[in-house]
Amino acid sequence: MKTRILQLCLLAALSTAMPAAWSGPGHDHGEEAAPVAGDGPRRAPDGSVFLPKPAQRQLGVRTLPVERAALPRTLELNGRVVMDPNAGGLVQPMQGGRVEAGPDGLPEPGRPVRRGEVLAWVVPAAGAIERAGQQAQLAELRAERDIVGARLKRLRELADSVPRKDIDEAAATLASLDTRIRATRDGLQGREALTAPVDGVIAEARAVAGQVVDARETLFEIVDPTRLRIEALAYEPERVTRITGGSLAVGGRVLALRHVGTASALRDQALPIRFAATGEALDGLALGQTVRVQVQLADTVDGHRVPAAALMKNPSNQTIVWVKTAPEHFEPRVVLSEPLDGGHVAVTSGLTDGDRVVVRAAALVNQIR
User: Fold this and answer.
1) Is 144:184 a contact under the CB 8 Å cutoff?
2) Hey, is 172 helix, strand or coil?
3) Does the pLDDT at position 23 exceed 50?
4) Does the keyword Signal apply (predicted)?
């Protein structure tokens, strides 16, 4: 019985394989078909991309429809972060001398300070000849005060026989001498207090204990981190007329800028433009940092507003965006764009109203091969 079953199985296998093996001329089925790539993400020969729905959700692909509109024209200028003159200041000694620590020690960068707080002391530095001259002057003043004091004592004893004006004159002379003596003594022994001119934090500290400094040397910079200025430089002044505002990209966020004013004189062949910056995004900025400022003008440009992250490069180094043409199909579009702000651009060519542009995970879609 087992032998009969084995024979039947062998016969069935041979009957299945015989037509393919014994097909005669003209009865074959052509060359073997290429294997199917499956349902995974892939790029078609025309450059479009097939991306199944599960893969789209896994990559986090998001699209938005675009509409043409009149958008404010924007110029991108180089700039840097500067101090707000009303919310920051410098600490400089009026005379040269040796630095001594303040009541709480010498402040370090990042330390909050209050207006009027003593940050350090400067002991005046005087030469031996100058100090000797001041000491001699102090000795002369003291001797003269003794003489005037004795004379005033005698006049008061003879108050009934001398004019009152002589007594008053001697008293005024004695008071004047006392004031001059105190001023001279303070010049020899006194020290200059370096105080904070505004409330804020120490942005830069250049003082150490025992350091000898010159007059007008900057030892501390104080800044309010919530109020800063952005200074942009325009090398084509005729293009920056009628400024309506500005923006700045900081740490993935767009910081709105308020136009404060434009200078009337060139600096190094450029026209300085000041903007005021406020907000939480200022935490990512530092004094002197170079930035790219988007200056918004009153002129407009017709285009489609899309995030700057949607712009990609194709193998020919052309700027493209990915447009969703079907639920699981995307195609690249070569576009021309102009900057709008730190996070968006105006696409002036290559898109039509209603196109769904990939605004998130565009870089991942661009990498599919």
Assistant:
1) no
2) helix
3) no
4) yes
Rounded distance between C-alpha atoms, residue 201 and residue 87, angstroms:
11
Q: Answer yes or no: is 7 within a domain.
A: no
| pTM of the shown model | 0.61
What is the arithmetic mean of pLDDT over 356-369?
Answer: 92
Please check whether residue 170 is in contact with residue 148, taking contact to mean a CB–CB distance below 8 angstroms: yes
What is the H or E stretch that residue 166 is in?
Answer: helix 164-189
* Predicted local distance difference test score (pLDDT) of residue 127: 59
- 206 and 95 belong to one structural domain: yes
Looking at the fold, whether 198 and 95 belong to one and the same domain comes out as yes
Q: DSSP letters along 260-308, please?
A: EEE-SS-BTTBEEEEEEE-SGGGGG--TT-EEEEEEEEEEEEEEEEEEG
Question: CB–CB of 237/86 below 8 Å?
Answer: no
Q: Indicate whether 180 and 210 sit together in one domain.
A: no
DSSP letter (8 states) at residue 163 = -
Cβ atoms of 149 and 174 within 8 Å: the answer is yes
Task: Give the residue-averaged pLDDT of 244-250.
Answer: 85
The answer on 208 and 263 residing in a single domain is no
